């Protein structure tokens, strides 16, 4: 049984991600945990000394959180009732990132599925800071869903890689699961400025070939393109339904997503995005 966290702030954006998850895992035995976190907008330890007024605010927020989770459960039971799916709810006085870290550290959580805010304006703000903090720190794969994306089967999966990671089964298993469930084709893409792969990279590419030997897949080599440009160009030419990337420290992924502010990125992404940590807690 898959164990999946569904963070929600009760927005349309987070409900859209929940709907995606329920359809993505429609044929899989799953236990979903709905999570809502709350803290006062201004919260410092010394404020707790004020006493009952502060505690009253916290009680009100807790009640609102619990009511919101009940409302979502009612919607799920009405629209997506599924005997393969079970649910629990967590209402926590915590930050979202800290709560997800606690839930995924040393546990057997398979996925975190959450919404993004979509790219807006010239700055190409792709994700809210919460989503990017979760992606950066989570010990489990994170599936991020753009706010305006309606579910479609991920028949074409794009997996860019610099082949600088010694791939393990737990890295590739989420991609194999997608391919098996939806009969997907995996497009493994390496972008460079014309240099040859090192022996280390060639060895890691061979590891991937072995992992994907029973799965429909194609290797693509793109020269004289940045990773951002290569992904954008590939999306235009192919009907990609899911982008998968490995969050490997000191890799092109980290450079791509965290070289500037936490929630700015150099290309517009409008499809679901699965991020697999290089170290998975199991």
Automatic annotation (TrEMBL):
Pfam families: Usp. Coiled coil: none annotated. InterPro entries: Universal_stress_UspA, UspA. Residues 1-146 form the UspA domain. It comes from the Bacteria. Belongs to the universal stress protein A family. This is Universal stress protein. It comes from Mariniflexile aquimaris. The lineage of its organism: Bacteria, Pseudomonadati, Bacteroidota, Flavobacteriia, Flavobacteriales.
